[in-house]
Every structure is written in C-alpha cells, then in structure tokens.
Amino acid sequence: MKKVNVKEKFQMFSDHWNPRIVGELNGQQVKLAKLKGEFIWHSHEDEDEMFFIVKGSLKIEFRDKTVELKENEFFIVPRGVEHKPIAEEEVQVMLFEPASTEHTGKEKHKLTNNNQEHL
Q1: Residue 10 has what DSSP assignment?
Q2: Distance CA 91, CA 36 (A)
Q3: How many angstroms separate the CA atoms of 12 and 41, rounded?
Q4: pLDDT at 100
Q5: What is the pLDDT of residue 1?
Q6: CA separation (Å) from 88 to 17, 37, 55, 56, 59?
Q7: DSSP states along 26-63
Q8: Which class for 105: exposed (0-12), middle (13-18), buried (19 or more C-beta within 10 A)?
Q9: C-alpha 43: how far from its chain's center?
Q10: With contact defined as beta carbons under 8 Å apart, do 16 and 91 qualify?
C-alpha cells in the first residue's frame, strides 16, 4: 500500500498517447496519459473506458456527437462505442479501464501500445 502523487507521476514523462499504469484494483487499471493532437477511431468491444481530465480539455468524437471535457470532469465511454479523442492543446488525463483493455481495440496503428509501462 502506498499513496500516489498524480502531479509527480505526470512529471515523469512527456510523450503523448502513451498511457502509464499507476495503480490496479479489482481487475481495473488506473492510467495517466498526456494527449495532444488527434487519436484514431477505435472501440473496446468488452470494456467501458473512463476519461477523467486532470489538466486541460479534451474532445471525444462519436459518430453522432462530440463531448467536450474540462478539468475535473469525467466521461465513461460504454463498451463497443466507437470514439476518437482529440486534444487541441496538451491535456493530462487519468483513465480507468479493465486490465484486459487493448489500447486501440482491434485497430492496429503506429500509436497502439499494449505493453504499457508501470510507474
């Protein structure tokens, strides 16, 4: 058991779209990521995914709408729903998702990373 300082963890990396695992509980992983630019359209067939905005703002595009998230807001993308995160400026996000979640679902892309580092 140990406490985690989110600000300190974010200072440990600078790259974008490469989540780091900072905690695990009940088969779920807590991840931190810095995002900037556009990600790819993808979905997670069997897992919900929660985005909590720590710093900045994030748009999540869906095929029929766009959700804009600001600091201290979160949004849960239901399993099977195709989405594309967009960060016009750098955003710091905390993700909650099952450990089985593949980074880009079944989509394979140069940004795909299914071997995420533990901090």
Answers
A1: H
A2: 7
A3: 28
A4: 73
A5: 76
A6: 13, 6, 13, 9, 8
A7: TTEEEEEEEEEEE---B--SS--EEEEEEES-EEEE-S
A8: buried
A9: 12
A10: no
In this prediction, residues 11-19 reach a mean pLDDT of 95
Q: Which two tokens stand for residue 30?
A: 């807590």
- Tokens 């995420």 correspond to 116
Q: Hey, what are 64's tokens?
A: 């029929």
Of how many residues is the chain composed?
119
Dist CA 13 CA 8 (whole Å) = 10
Mean predicted confidence (pLDDT) in 86-112: 78
Query: Which residues have a Cβ under 8 Å from the Cβ of 9 and sit 6 or more positions away?
Result: 20, 22, 32, 119
Averaged pLDDT, 104-112: 59
Q: Which two tokens stand for residue 44?
A: 């997670």
